[in-house]
Amino acid sequence: MTELAAVKAALKTQAVETPSWAYGNSGTRFKVFAQQGVPRTPQEKLEDAAQVHAFTGVAPTVALHIPWDKVEDYAALAKLAEERGVKLGAINSNTFQDDDYKLGSICHPDASVRRKALDHLLECVDIMDATGSQDLKLWFADGTNYPGQDDLRARQDRLSEGLSEVYDRLGDGQRMLLEYKFFEPAFYSTDVPDWGTAYAHCLKLGPKAQVVVDTGHHAPGTNIEFIVATLLREGKLGGFDFNSRFYADDDLMVGAADPFQLFRIMYEVIRGGGYTPDVAFMLDQCHNIEAKIPAIIRSVMNVQEATAKALLVDRDALAVAQREGDVLEANAVLMDAYNTDVRPLLAEVREEMGLDANPIAAYKRSGWAEKIVAERVGGEQAGWGA
Ligand code: PSV
Ligand code: MN
Ligand code: MN
Predict the structure, then answer these.
(1) Is the reported ipTM for this assembly greater than 0.90?
(2) Atom 1 in ligand 1: residue holding the nearest Cα
(3) pLDDT per residue over 269-296, tens digit each?
(4) Nearest CA to ligand 1 atom 5
């Protein structure tokens, strides 16, 4: 295989998971701007996700968020997904929206609230059994707002105990992906604030526990690619929640705020041997004012562009420059790849996959946007939290 053929082959096998909640209405705490044609049910979210996969060819799975995507029969939902041309992906738990969770969920000082949260997490594993999903994605809003509010160390003990119970429930081929976030909704302390805390818990739990890196969950200036390199080196990188941020957890389209950072992350993934199905590339975004389906298509394309550039890095030339201490040349090798316009290459890849070279234009021509506006009338639109 020529080098370019290998790059193309790698791009064709990429899989970016889209999140069910990105298809519904979302907003800020100030206002949710509802859009017409937005899904009313989990089933309709799957139909929209299938459109993203149909036009990009690399978005074969959809993550669910429970209970936002609660249905009676999860096996039937998985079957429906397959009929539409996609599969169900990670199951995201939700222990942050009930009044009971004011002081936390599995770190709550009261054992009965911890039990409630744990029962929810165990139910999520039951759902994985029914859907065939491999990954349970855990993000905890747990934390405190004021110094002294609770015992920081006791909260870690409760976290450890709760995670162990869930870990023990995982079946063969199932994983737990633990997500960290440095603040929000808690403003003083967060119980899983950083990769170090997530890593320490995952290490203790065992091989089925892995860390997930949400690109929006770091303090400004954090070197995320270093975290990626380190987790991969330790065999503990389970996947990504991709999105981009200008200020806090903005959940904007991945690659919109800092495409160079996305390239650097993808380079470390590839360099570290993480470009395999064991590292899940998921989106975790909200499209507050832009049309949802084309925004998700654009996001998938942004991931593809960063990946293509990272695959094009001349690693032999880079190794030589690094060995010789040629700082400028090493940097130039990396920048040459980053500055390559990979859009023609990706257009070729898509055509070779039997797709339109321009997924957004093809989606616009398809009439799907008009169809859902016409058909999805009545009922309640799905939204973030509904
Ligand atoms: C938290 O900010 C988070 O990134 C977690 O992944 C949640 O599951 C998701 O947002 C909900 O949108
Ligand atoms: Mn996330
Ligand atoms: Mn987030």
Answers:
(1) yes
(2) 139
(3) 999 999 999 999 999 999 999 999 999 9
(4) 139
